[in-house]
Amino acid sequence: MGYQWWIVVSVFVTQVFLVGLATYSFPLILVAVRESFGATSTQINLALTASATLGIFLPPLIGPLIDRWSVRGLMTLGTLSFICGLGLLSFTEGITQFIWVYAFFITTANTLLGPMTGPALIARWFTSARGRALGIAATGASLGGFAFPWLVAEWLSAAGWRWTLQISAVLVSVCVLPFVFFVLRDYPPLSPEAPSQAEPGSATQANPAMMTNRDILRAPAYWIIGICFGLLFMTYTAVLSNLGMFLEGLGFEASLTGTLISVVAISGLVGKLALGAASDRIGLKAGLGIALCLTGSGIFLFSTEPRYSILFVGACVLGLSAGGMVPVWTGMVAAGFGTPNFGRAMGLMSPMIAVLVMPGYLIAGWSDDTMGSFRPAFQFFVASIGLAFLLLPFLKLGPSARLDGEVSSPP
Description:
Layout: H1 3-37, H2 41-68, H3 71-89, H4 95-113, H5 118-125, H6 130-175, H7 177-183, H8 213-218, H9 220-241, H10 243-249, H11 255-282, H12 284-303, H13 308-337, H14 342-371, H15 375-391
Helix pairs in contact: 1-4, 1-5, 1-6, 1-11, 2-4, 2-14, 3-4, 3-6, 5-6, 6-11, 9-13, 9-14, 9-15, 11-12, 11-13, 12-13, 12-15, 14-15
């Protein structure tokens, strides 16, 4: 196995733990935290809103560093932030402390270990089979989403949420940090077998395809991609984060939350493979359209406050859409702005997405606290997905917009 595949393995492992714990397992933990602190749904969602707020400021700082500095160094800092965040959250004594610790440490980890860094590193190591490598790395999120909710549910039942967070911090220290620090390399060696790569800041990086911040911000693709994915992520993350409280309000047992989240994760694995293959054939724009339709359909089913069987159908549909979100997003950014501008474009786009994501949490919390139900919020989310779908005809990416292989740089 060539060393480039060890890069894929390392990114895969980070996604197993980051997404498995920070995305798929926190809905279970938040229910326990709310009960422990006597907090409202709105207060719990403030932690998520504060996290999204910090997400406005971090990506523009991180994006240029991805193109100019060490991705390995950034991911090491992200892993340390994740470990510290999980550990410190377990010692918080009130909801305000919990909100601020979560907002700073978990958001930093999500930014430094998320879709801005790992895919950029893989893109450096692969020319052919790039789509396959990105797809394999992305399946780590689905594996983590399947395994960790079951484990976290057991840990919560046996030891409580504080011990659960401490166990998670130890696991990240033992399983993720060695891969990130010892295995990752920023660039492949200069050899005939590996793609040629200039050192950051060298003269060979003076690429005529490089765009300025102004060029990126003036591109229509920046705004359309950002708005579409901002609305898509707003609806998906708000629903998933509040799933435990939503099911509790419907009278279901807490164990169902872990089961449905695992269903979302497994369906996400299928979605990654299916949407990835479809996007290679029909294009990224059509792939985004499919993801939007699936997300809207899944949330609509939840908004009916259905019985047991329909909840499973909704979770399956929502998971299928989630599988293609990040691969299609990163593929669109690369296709729209060129791989030399990937980090900068992602860094500039992420704040806009964060601004759109923020209201989703507050709307969900307000809906539950004032209306006694998440239904109004979910109906609003379905309408938001419809708005994003209406923007798709205006998005122009060109004929090279595929997940696999090279993408052309913009003129």
